[in-house]
Protein backbone atom coordinates (compact mmCIF):
# COMPACT_ATOMS: atom_id res chain seq x y z
CA UNK A 1 0.00 0.00 0.00
CA UNK A 2 1.34 3.43 -0.93
CA UNK A 3 2.49 6.02 1.62
CA UNK A 4 0.33 9.15 1.28
CA UNK A 5 2.00 11.24 3.96
CA UNK A 6 4.30 13.03 1.52
CA UNK A 7 1.33 14.09 -0.62
CA UNK A 8 -0.51 15.39 2.45
CA UNK A 9 2.53 17.24 3.78
CA UNK A 10 3.10 18.94 0.42
CA UNK A 11 -0.45 20.19 -0.20
CA UNK A 12 -2.26 20.25 3.15
CA UNK A 13 -0.09 22.53 5.24
CA UNK A 14 -2.48 24.45 7.50
CA UNK A 15 -1.83 25.92 10.93
CA UNK A 16 -4.91 24.50 12.62
CA UNK A 17 -5.80 21.34 14.53
CA UNK A 18 -4.20 17.95 13.89
CA UNK A 19 -6.34 15.73 11.67
CA UNK A 20 -6.17 12.05 10.77
CA UNK A 21 -7.47 10.75 7.43
CA UNK A 22 -8.85 7.26 8.17
CA UNK A 23 -9.84 4.37 5.91
CA UNK A 24 -13.59 3.76 6.55
CA UNK A 25 -13.35 0.07 5.64
CA UNK A 26 -11.67 -0.66 8.98
CA UNK A 27 -12.05 2.62 10.87
CA UNK A 28 -8.48 2.53 12.14
CA UNK A 29 -5.97 2.61 9.29
CA UNK A 30 -4.62 6.18 9.13
CA UNK A 31 -3.76 7.16 5.55
CA UNK A 32 -2.11 10.46 6.51
CA UNK A 33 -1.90 13.09 9.24
CA UNK A 34 -1.94 16.84 8.70
CA UNK A 35 -3.04 20.13 10.17
CA UNK A 36 -6.25 21.71 8.95
CA UNK A 37 -6.35 25.22 7.53
CA UNK A 38 -7.42 28.20 9.64
CA UNK A 39 -9.27 31.42 8.77
CA UNK A 40 -5.91 33.10 8.22
CA UNK A 41 -4.86 30.28 5.89
CA UNK A 42 -8.11 30.67 3.94
CA UNK A 43 -7.60 34.43 3.60
CA UNK A 44 -4.07 33.81 2.33
CA UNK A 45 -5.44 31.37 -0.26
CA UNK A 46 -7.90 33.96 -1.58
CA UNK A 47 -5.12 36.56 -1.72
CA UNK A 48 -2.95 34.12 -3.65
CA UNK A 49 -5.75 33.49 -6.13
CA UNK A 50 -6.32 37.23 -6.56
CA UNK A 51 -2.63 38.03 -7.07
CA UNK A 52 -2.25 35.30 -9.72
CA UNK A 53 -5.51 36.02 -11.56
CA UNK A 54 -4.12 38.44 -14.12
CA UNK A 55 -1.40 36.22 -15.50
CA UNK A 56 -3.78 33.29 -15.83
CA UNK A 57 -6.71 35.25 -17.28
CA UNK A 58 -4.36 36.87 -19.83
CA UNK A 59 -3.04 33.46 -20.92
CA UNK A 60 -4.63 32.65 -24.30
CA UNK A 61 -7.55 30.28 -23.89
CA UNK A 62 -6.04 27.56 -26.14
CA UNK A 63 -2.95 27.49 -23.91
CA UNK A 64 -5.16 27.17 -20.84
CA UNK A 65 -6.96 24.37 -22.60
CA UNK A 66 -3.70 22.58 -23.40
CA UNK A 67 -2.91 22.37 -19.68
CA UNK A 68 -6.34 20.90 -18.95
CA UNK A 69 -5.94 18.36 -21.74
CA UNK A 70 -2.54 17.37 -20.36
CA UNK A 71 -4.08 17.01 -16.89
CA UNK A 72 -6.75 14.66 -18.19
CA UNK A 73 -4.17 12.54 -19.97
CA UNK A 74 -1.94 12.41 -16.89
CA UNK A 75 -4.84 11.34 -14.66
CA UNK A 76 -5.70 8.66 -17.18
CA UNK A 77 -2.18 7.25 -16.96
CA UNK A 78 -2.52 7.12 -13.16
CA UNK A 79 -6.05 5.71 -13.02
CA UNK A 80 -5.04 2.66 -10.98
CA UNK A 81 -3.17 4.74 -8.41
CA UNK A 82 -5.88 7.38 -8.01
CA UNK A 83 -8.68 4.80 -7.91
CA UNK A 84 -6.97 2.87 -5.12
CA UNK A 85 -6.50 6.09 -3.14
CA UNK A 86 -10.18 6.99 -3.60
CA UNK A 87 -11.35 3.58 -2.42
CA UNK A 88 -9.07 3.72 0.63
CA UNK A 89 -10.16 7.25 1.53
CA UNK A 90 -13.88 7.29 0.67
CA UNK A 91 -14.81 3.60 0.77
CA UNK A 92 -16.49 3.03 -2.60
CA UNK A 93 -15.67 -0.09 -4.57
CA UNK A 94 -12.62 -0.08 -6.80
CA UNK A 95 -14.84 -0.39 -9.89
CA UNK A 96 -16.83 2.68 -8.85
CA UNK A 97 -13.61 4.57 -8.14
CA UNK A 98 -12.22 3.72 -11.56
CA UNK A 99 -15.44 4.91 -13.20
CA UNK A 100 -15.25 8.19 -11.32
CA UNK A 101 -11.59 8.81 -12.12
CA UNK A 102 -12.27 8.00 -15.76
CA UNK A 103 -15.03 10.60 -15.80
CA UNK A 104 -12.69 13.13 -14.18
CA UNK A 105 -10.16 12.55 -16.95
CA UNK A 106 -12.89 13.12 -19.54
CA UNK A 107 -14.01 16.32 -17.80
CA UNK A 108 -10.55 17.86 -17.98
CA UNK A 109 -10.28 16.86 -21.62
CA UNK A 110 -13.75 18.17 -22.45
CA UNK A 111 -13.14 21.60 -20.94
CA UNK A 112 -9.63 21.63 -22.33
CA UNK A 113 -11.17 21.23 -25.79
CA UNK A 114 -13.90 23.77 -24.98
CA UNK A 115 -11.22 26.36 -24.16
CA UNK A 116 -10.09 26.17 -27.78
CA UNK A 117 -13.52 27.45 -28.91
CA UNK A 118 -14.04 29.77 -25.95
CA UNK A 119 -15.48 32.99 -27.32
CA UNK A 120 -18.70 34.59 -28.53
CA UNK A 121 -20.97 34.91 -31.52
CA UNK A 122 -21.65 37.38 -34.35
CA UNK A 123 -25.18 38.74 -34.79
CA UNK A 124 -26.84 40.71 -37.60
CA UNK A 125 -27.72 44.36 -37.10
CA UNK A 126 -30.62 46.40 -38.50
CA UNK A 127 -28.00 49.03 -39.39
CA UNK A 128 -26.15 47.98 -42.58
CA UNK A 129 -22.96 49.64 -41.27
CA UNK A 130 -22.93 47.90 -37.90
CA UNK A 131 -21.79 44.50 -36.77
CA UNK A 132 -22.80 43.06 -33.42
CA UNK A 133 -20.65 40.51 -31.62
CA UNK A 134 -20.27 39.03 -28.16
CA UNK A 135 -17.15 38.02 -26.28
CA UNK A 136 -16.62 36.02 -23.10
CA UNK A 137 -14.26 37.14 -20.36
CA UNK A 138 -12.95 35.50 -17.18
CA UNK A 139 -15.02 36.22 -14.12
CA UNK A 140 -12.30 36.47 -11.44
CA UNK A 141 -11.55 34.57 -8.23
CA UNK A 142 -14.03 31.74 -7.74
CA UNK A 143 -14.58 29.30 -4.88
CA UNK A 144 -15.24 25.60 -5.46
CA UNK A 145 -16.62 23.82 -2.38
CA UNK A 146 -17.05 20.10 -2.92
CA UNK A 147 -18.37 17.04 -1.01
CA UNK A 148 -16.74 13.75 -0.11
CA UNK A 149 -18.96 11.37 -2.06
CA UNK A 150 -17.47 12.19 -5.48
CA UNK A 151 -14.04 13.49 -4.43
CA UNK A 152 -12.63 13.60 -7.95
CA UNK A 153 -15.41 14.15 -10.49
CA UNK A 154 -17.30 16.96 -8.73
CA UNK A 155 -14.09 19.00 -8.18
CA UNK A 156 -13.21 18.32 -11.83
CA UNK A 157 -16.54 19.60 -13.13
CA UNK A 158 -16.08 22.83 -11.18
CA UNK A 159 -12.34 23.42 -11.49
CA UNK A 160 -11.94 22.49 -15.17
CA UNK A 161 -14.50 24.99 -16.58
CA UNK A 162 -13.30 27.68 -14.17
CA UNK A 163 -9.71 27.29 -15.35
CA UNK A 164 -10.81 27.06 -18.98
CA UNK A 165 -12.63 30.38 -18.56
CA UNK A 166 -9.51 32.01 -17.12
CA UNK A 167 -10.53 32.22 -13.46
CA UNK A 168 -8.31 31.51 -10.49
CA UNK A 169 -9.76 29.06 -7.96
CA UNK A 170 -9.91 28.56 -4.22
CA UNK A 171 -10.71 24.88 -3.81
CA UNK A 172 -12.17 23.58 -0.55
CA UNK A 173 -12.76 19.80 -0.61
CA UNK A 174 -14.43 17.87 2.19
CA UNK A 175 -12.15 17.04 5.11
CA UNK A 176 -13.13 13.38 4.64
CA UNK A 177 -11.42 13.14 1.22
CA UNK A 178 -8.50 15.60 1.11
CA UNK A 179 -5.91 13.26 -0.38
CA UNK A 180 -7.83 12.78 -3.64
CA UNK A 181 -8.04 16.59 -3.84
CA UNK A 182 -4.31 16.90 -3.19
CA UNK A 183 -3.61 14.38 -5.95
CA UNK A 184 -5.66 16.47 -8.39
CA UNK A 185 -3.72 19.60 -7.40
CA UNK A 186 -0.45 17.73 -7.86
CA UNK A 187 -1.50 16.56 -11.33
CA UNK A 188 -2.48 20.09 -12.40
CA UNK A 189 0.85 21.39 -11.14
CA UNK A 190 2.73 18.77 -13.15
CA UNK A 191 0.70 19.66 -16.25
CA UNK A 192 1.95 23.25 -16.07
CA UNK A 193 -0.71 25.18 -14.14
CA UNK A 194 1.06 28.25 -12.73
CA UNK A 195 1.50 28.49 -8.97
CA UNK A 196 -1.30 30.25 -7.13
CA UNK A 197 -3.97 29.74 -9.80
CA UNK A 198 -5.47 26.78 -7.90
CA UNK A 199 -5.36 27.14 -4.12
CA UNK A 200 -6.25 24.09 -2.05
CA UNK A 201 -7.77 24.77 1.38
CA UNK A 202 -8.66 21.85 3.67
CA UNK A 203 -10.58 22.81 6.80
CA UNK A 204 -13.87 23.09 8.62
CA UNK A 205 -16.76 24.62 6.70
CA UNK A 206 -17.72 26.95 9.55
CA UNK A 207 -14.20 28.33 9.64
CA UNK A 208 -12.45 28.27 6.28
CA UNK A 209 -15.59 27.84 4.16
CA UNK A 210 -17.21 30.81 5.83
CA UNK A 211 -14.07 32.89 5.30
CA UNK A 212 -13.90 32.07 1.61
CA UNK A 213 -17.53 32.72 0.68
CA UNK A 214 -17.63 36.03 2.57
CA UNK A 215 -14.36 37.33 1.13
CA UNK A 216 -14.85 40.42 -1.05
CA UNK A 217 -12.40 39.18 -3.69
CA UNK A 218 -14.42 36.00 -4.33
CA UNK A 219 -16.87 36.81 -7.13
CA UNK A 220 -18.51 33.39 -7.47
CA UNK A 221 -19.17 30.42 -5.20
CA UNK A 222 -19.99 26.95 -6.52
CA UNK A 223 -21.10 24.54 -3.80
CA UNK A 224 -22.22 20.93 -3.87
CA UNK A 225 -23.50 19.84 -0.48
CA UNK A 226 -26.52 19.46 1.74
CA UNK A 227 -29.53 21.76 1.42
CA UNK A 228 -28.92 23.12 4.92
CA UNK A 229 -25.36 24.11 4.09
CA UNK A 230 -26.50 25.57 0.77
CA UNK A 231 -29.00 27.84 2.53
CA UNK A 232 -26.28 29.01 4.92
CA UNK A 233 -23.87 29.75 2.08
CA UNK A 234 -26.54 31.69 0.21
CA UNK A 235 -27.23 33.77 3.30
CA UNK A 236 -23.54 34.48 3.90
CA UNK A 237 -23.00 35.54 0.31
CA UNK A 238 -26.04 37.81 0.45
CA UNK A 239 -24.68 39.48 3.59
CA UNK A 240 -21.43 40.47 1.87
CA UNK A 241 -22.82 43.56 0.20
CA UNK A 242 -20.81 42.61 -2.89
CA UNK A 243 -22.48 41.07 -5.94
CA UNK A 244 -21.43 37.40 -5.98
CA UNK A 245 -22.67 34.58 -8.15
CA UNK A 246 -23.86 31.46 -6.35
CA UNK A 247 -24.24 28.00 -7.85
CA UNK A 248 -25.79 25.43 -5.51
CA UNK A 249 -26.27 21.69 -6.07
CA UNK A 250 -27.87 20.31 -2.94
CA UNK A 251 -29.83 17.38 -1.50
CA UNK A 252 -32.11 14.91 -3.23
CA UNK A 253 -34.86 12.40 -2.51
CA UNK A 254 -35.06 10.77 -5.90
CA UNK A 255 -37.79 8.37 -7.01
CA UNK A 256 -37.93 5.58 -9.56
CA UNK A 257 -41.44 4.68 -10.73
CA UNK A 258 -42.11 1.18 -12.11
CA UNK A 259 -45.21 1.34 -14.29
CA UNK A 260 -47.82 -1.33 -14.96
CA UNK A 261 -46.59 -3.52 -17.82
CA UNK A 262 -42.96 -2.57 -17.23
CA UNK A 263 -39.99 -4.92 -17.57
CA UNK A 264 -39.76 -5.99 -13.93
CA UNK A 265 -36.27 -7.46 -14.20
CA UNK A 266 -35.07 -4.13 -15.54
CA UNK A 267 -36.96 -2.25 -12.83
CA UNK A 268 -35.39 -4.34 -10.07
CA UNK A 269 -31.92 -3.97 -11.53
CA UNK A 270 -32.24 -0.18 -11.90
CA UNK A 271 -33.60 0.14 -8.36
CA UNK A 272 -30.73 -1.84 -6.85
CA UNK A 273 -28.07 -0.01 -8.84
CA UNK A 274 -29.58 3.36 -8.09
CA UNK A 275 -30.20 2.76 -4.41
CA UNK A 276 -27.14 0.76 -3.33
CA UNK A 277 -24.43 1.59 -5.82
CA UNK A 278 -21.96 3.98 -4.18
CA UNK A 279 -23.50 2.81 -0.85
CA UNK A 280 -26.43 5.14 -1.57
CA UNK A 281 -24.14 8.11 -0.96
CA UNK A 282 -25.16 10.20 -3.96
CA UNK A 283 -27.50 13.15 -4.36
CA UNK A 284 -29.04 11.33 -7.35
CA UNK A 285 -29.42 7.96 -5.60
CA UNK A 286 -32.75 6.13 -5.81
CA UNK A 287 -34.15 6.64 -2.32
CA UNK A 288 -37.82 5.96 -3.17
CA UNK A 289 -39.19 3.14 -5.32
CA UNK A 290 -42.77 3.81 -6.39
CA UNK A 291 -44.50 0.77 -7.87
CA UNK A 292 -47.84 0.37 -9.62
CA UNK A 293 -50.06 -1.95 -7.60
CA UNK A 294 -50.49 -4.39 -10.51
CA UNK A 295 -46.77 -5.26 -10.57
CA UNK A 296 -45.84 -4.75 -6.92
CA UNK A 297 -45.58 -8.42 -5.92
CA UNK A 298 -43.57 -9.37 -8.99
CA UNK A 299 -41.15 -6.50 -8.50
CA UNK A 300 -40.62 -7.32 -4.83
CA UNK A 301 -39.69 -10.89 -5.73
CA UNK A 302 -37.17 -9.79 -8.34
CA UNK A 303 -35.78 -7.08 -6.08
CA UNK A 304 -34.99 -9.53 -3.28
CA UNK A 305 -33.52 -12.03 -5.76
CA UNK A 306 -31.25 -9.31 -7.10
CA UNK A 307 -30.15 -8.25 -3.62
CA UNK A 308 -29.17 -11.81 -2.70
CA UNK A 309 -26.27 -11.42 -5.16
CA UNK A 310 -25.19 -8.09 -3.64
CA UNK A 311 -21.91 -8.47 -1.71
CA UNK A 312 -20.88 -5.97 0.97
CA UNK A 313 -17.23 -5.54 1.98
CA UNK A 314 -14.02 -3.48 1.65
CA UNK A 315 -13.90 -1.69 -1.68
CA UNK A 316 -10.57 -3.20 -2.71
CA UNK A 317 -11.89 -6.75 -2.25
CA UNK A 318 -12.75 -8.50 -5.55
CA UNK A 319 -16.43 -9.05 -6.25
CA UNK A 320 -17.67 -6.47 -3.75
CA UNK A 321 -20.85 -4.63 -4.81
CA UNK A 322 -21.05 -2.09 -1.97
CA UNK A 323 -18.43 -0.68 0.37
CA UNK A 324 -18.70 0.99 3.77
CA UNK A 325 -20.30 4.31 4.53
CA UNK A 326 -17.82 7.16 4.73
CA UNK A 327 -17.46 7.67 8.50
CA UNK A 328 -18.95 7.02 11.92
CA UNK A 329 -21.26 10.04 11.82
CA UNK A 330 -22.83 8.95 8.53
CA UNK A 331 -23.06 5.38 9.80
CA UNK A 332 -24.97 6.49 12.89
CA UNK A 333 -27.35 8.65 10.81
CA UNK A 334 -28.12 5.69 8.56
CA UNK A 335 -28.77 3.43 11.55
CA UNK A 336 -31.16 6.02 13.00
CA UNK A 337 -33.09 6.20 9.71
CA UNK A 338 -33.40 2.40 9.64
CA UNK A 339 -34.76 2.49 13.18
CA UNK A 340 -37.20 5.23 12.20
CA UNK A 341 -38.42 3.11 9.31
CA UNK A 342 -39.16 0.24 11.69
CA UNK A 343 -40.72 2.46 14.37
CA UNK A 344 -43.01 4.29 11.93
CA UNK A 345 -44.54 1.15 10.45
CA UNK A 346 -42.36 0.32 7.48
CA UNK A 347 -42.24 -3.37 6.58
CA UNK A 348 -38.64 -4.56 6.42
CA UNK A 349 -38.20 -6.60 3.24
CA UNK A 350 -34.43 -6.94 3.27
CA UNK A 351 -31.40 -5.97 5.31
CA UNK A 352 -31.58 -3.61 8.23
CA UNK A 353 -28.62 -5.19 9.99
CA UNK A 354 -25.47 -3.49 11.23
CA UNK A 355 -21.94 -4.68 10.46
CA UNK A 356 -19.78 -6.24 13.16
CA UNK A 357 -16.68 -4.31 12.14
CA UNK A 358 -15.82 -1.33 10.01
CA UNK A 359 -18.61 0.94 8.80
CA UNK A 360 -20.68 -1.57 6.85
CA UNK A 361 -24.46 -1.73 6.55
CA UNK A 362 -26.69 -4.17 4.71
CA UNK A 363 -28.67 -2.90 1.71
CA UNK A 364 -32.00 -2.16 3.36
CA UNK A 365 -35.48 -2.16 1.75
CA UNK A 366 -38.73 -1.09 3.42
CA UNK A 367 -42.21 -1.64 1.96
CA UNK A 368 -45.52 0.00 2.94
CA UNK A 369 -43.86 3.42 3.13
CA UNK A 370 -46.06 6.49 2.70
CA UNK A 371 -45.69 10.30 2.62
CA UNK A 372 -45.16 11.73 6.07
CA UNK A 373 -42.86 8.91 7.16
CA UNK A 374 -39.30 10.02 7.86
CA UNK A 375 -37.73 7.63 5.38
CA UNK A 376 -40.11 8.82 2.63
CA UNK A 377 -39.58 12.55 3.17
CA UNK A 378 -35.96 13.05 4.24
CA UNK A 379 -32.68 12.57 2.41
CA UNK A 380 -30.85 9.64 4.00
CA UNK A 381 -27.61 9.48 1.98
CA UNK A 382 -27.15 5.82 2.72
CA UNK A 383 -28.19 2.32 1.56
CA UNK A 384 -31.88 2.54 2.43
CA UNK A 385 -34.69 2.17 -0.14
CA UNK A 386 -38.37 2.87 0.54
CA UNK A 387 -41.09 1.16 -1.52
CA UNK A 388 -44.47 2.88 -1.97
CA UNK A 389 -47.51 1.58 -3.85
CA UNK A 390 -49.16 3.71 -6.55
CA UNK A 391 -52.73 3.16 -7.74
CA UNK A 392 -52.18 4.83 -11.13
CA UNK A 393 -49.72 6.87 -13.17
CA UNK A 394 -51.32 10.08 -11.87
CA UNK A 395 -50.94 8.87 -8.29
CA UNK A 396 -47.30 7.93 -8.99
CA UNK A 397 -46.51 11.40 -10.33
CA UNK A 398 -48.17 12.94 -7.28
CA UNK A 399 -45.99 10.77 -5.02
CA UNK A 400 -42.82 11.60 -6.94
CA UNK A 401 -43.54 15.34 -6.59
CA UNK A 402 -44.62 15.20 -2.95
CA UNK A 403 -41.17 15.82 -1.46
CA UNK A 404 -39.19 19.05 -1.20
CA UNK A 405 -36.44 17.93 -3.56
CA UNK A 406 -36.14 17.67 -7.33
CA UNK A 407 -32.78 16.37 -8.51
CA UNK A 408 -33.54 13.32 -10.64
CA UNK A 409 -36.52 11.04 -11.22
CA UNK A 410 -36.96 7.92 -13.29
CA UNK A 411 -39.69 5.87 -14.91
CA UNK A 412 -39.56 2.24 -16.06
CA UNK A 413 -42.28 1.76 -18.66
CA UNK A 414 -43.12 0.50 -22.13
CA UNK A 415 -46.00 2.96 -22.56
CA UNK A 416 -44.84 6.10 -24.36
CA UNK A 417 -47.96 8.02 -23.40
CA UNK A 418 -47.12 7.34 -19.76
CA UNK A 419 -43.46 8.17 -20.33
CA UNK A 420 -44.25 11.53 -21.89
CA UNK A 421 -46.80 12.38 -19.19
CA UNK A 422 -44.13 11.60 -16.59
CA UNK A 423 -41.56 13.79 -18.36
CA UNK A 424 -44.02 16.68 -18.63
CA UNK A 425 -45.34 16.51 -15.06
CA UNK A 426 -42.46 15.54 -12.78
CA UNK A 427 -40.62 18.35 -11.00
CA UNK A 428 -36.97 17.34 -11.37
CA UNK A 429 -33.98 18.71 -13.21
CA UNK A 430 -33.11 15.36 -14.78
CA UNK A 431 -35.60 12.72 -15.95
CA UNK A 432 -34.42 9.18 -16.67
CA UNK A 433 -36.46 6.77 -18.80
CA UNK A 434 -35.63 3.08 -18.36
CA UNK A 435 -32.34 4.21 -16.81
CA UNK A 436 -31.11 4.46 -13.19
CA UNK A 437 -31.57 7.78 -11.41
CA UNK A 438 -27.80 7.89 -10.88
CA UNK A 439 -25.29 8.64 -13.62
CA UNK A 440 -24.69 11.88 -15.51
CA UNK A 441 -22.93 12.47 -18.82
CA UNK A 442 -20.49 15.37 -18.82
CA UNK A 443 -21.75 17.00 -22.03
CA UNK A 444 -25.31 17.42 -20.69
CA UNK A 445 -26.32 20.20 -18.26
CA UNK A 446 -27.20 19.25 -14.70
CA UNK A 447 -29.12 21.10 -12.01
CA UNK A 448 -31.93 20.37 -9.57
CA UNK A 449 -35.32 21.92 -8.86
CA UNK A 450 -36.91 22.99 -5.57
CA UNK A 451 -34.59 22.44 -2.59
CA UNK A 452 -32.14 20.47 -4.71
CA UNK A 453 -30.52 23.59 -6.12
CA UNK A 454 -30.53 27.33 -6.58
CA UNK A 455 -32.06 26.89 -10.04
CA UNK A 456 -29.99 29.64 -11.61
CA UNK A 457 -26.80 28.16 -13.09
CA UNK A 458 -26.35 24.68 -14.52
CA UNK A 459 -23.28 22.52 -14.10
CA UNK A 460 -21.66 20.30 -16.73
CA UNK A 461 -21.88 20.72 -20.49
CA UNK A 462 -21.11 23.96 -22.27
CA UNK A 463 -23.51 25.72 -19.89
CA UNK A 464 -20.97 25.40 -17.06
CA UNK A 465 -18.73 27.96 -18.75
CA UNK A 466 -21.48 30.56 -18.47
CA UNK A 467 -21.24 30.54 -14.67
CA UNK A 468 -17.47 31.04 -14.72
CA UNK A 469 -17.37 33.82 -17.29
CA UNK A 470 -19.09 37.08 -18.20
CA UNK A 471 -20.24 38.32 -21.57
CA UNK A 472 -19.80 41.62 -23.37
CA UNK A 473 -21.84 42.76 -26.35
CA UNK A 474 -20.04 44.92 -28.91
CA UNK A 475 -21.63 47.16 -31.55
CA UNK A 476 -19.00 47.77 -34.23
CA UNK A 477 -19.84 50.65 -36.59
CA UNK A 478 -17.94 51.18 -39.82
Describe this structure in words.
The mean pLDDT is 96. The longest helix has 22 residues, at 94-115. With 478 residues, the protein is α/β, with parallel strands linked by helices. It has helices spanning 5-11, 39-51, 53-57, 61-77, 79-90, 94-115, 153-165, 178-191, 205-214, 227-238, 264-276, 296-307, 328-343, 374-377, 393-400, 416-425, 464-467, and strands at 18-22, 30-35, 122-123, 130-138, 141-145, 168-172, 198-200, 218-224, 245-249, 254-258, 286-292, 347-350, 364-367, 384-390, 405-406, 408-412, 430-433, 449-450, 469-477. The protein is 40% helix and 20% strand. It is built from 17 helices and 19 strands. The strands form five sheets. It has a seven-stranded mixed beta sheet, sandwiched between helices. The chain has a five-stranded parallel beta sheet with strand order 7-6-5-8-9, sandwiched between helices. It has two domains: 5-250 and 453-477, Aldehyde Dehydrogenase, Chain A, domain 1 (3-Layer(aba) Sandwich), CATH 3.40.605.10; 254-433, Aldehyde Dehydrogenase, Chain A, domain 2 (3-Layer(aba) Sandwich), CATH 3.40.309. It is globular and about 70 Å long. The N and C termini lie far apart (67 Å). Strand 13, helix 14 and strand 14 (384-390) form a beta-alpha-beta unit.
Features:
478 residues; alpha/beta; Aldehyde Dehydrogenase, Chain A, domain 1; Aldehyde Dehydrogenase, Chain A, domain 2; 2 domains; seven-stranded mixed β-sheet; five-stranded parallel β-sheet; 17 helices; 19 strands; globular
Amino acid sequence: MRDYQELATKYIDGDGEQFEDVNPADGSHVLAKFRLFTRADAEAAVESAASNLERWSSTPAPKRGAILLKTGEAMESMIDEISELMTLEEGKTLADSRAEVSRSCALFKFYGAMAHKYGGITLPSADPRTRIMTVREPLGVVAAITPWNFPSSIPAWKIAPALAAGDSVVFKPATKTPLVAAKMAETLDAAGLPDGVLNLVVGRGGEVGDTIVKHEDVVAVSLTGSTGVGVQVGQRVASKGVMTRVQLELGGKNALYVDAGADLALGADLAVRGAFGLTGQSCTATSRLIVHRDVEDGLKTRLIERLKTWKVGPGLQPGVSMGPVVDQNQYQKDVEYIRAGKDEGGKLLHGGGEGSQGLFLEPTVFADVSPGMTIFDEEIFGPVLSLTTAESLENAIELVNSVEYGHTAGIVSRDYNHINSFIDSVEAGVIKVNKPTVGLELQAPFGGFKKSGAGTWKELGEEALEFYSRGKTIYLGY
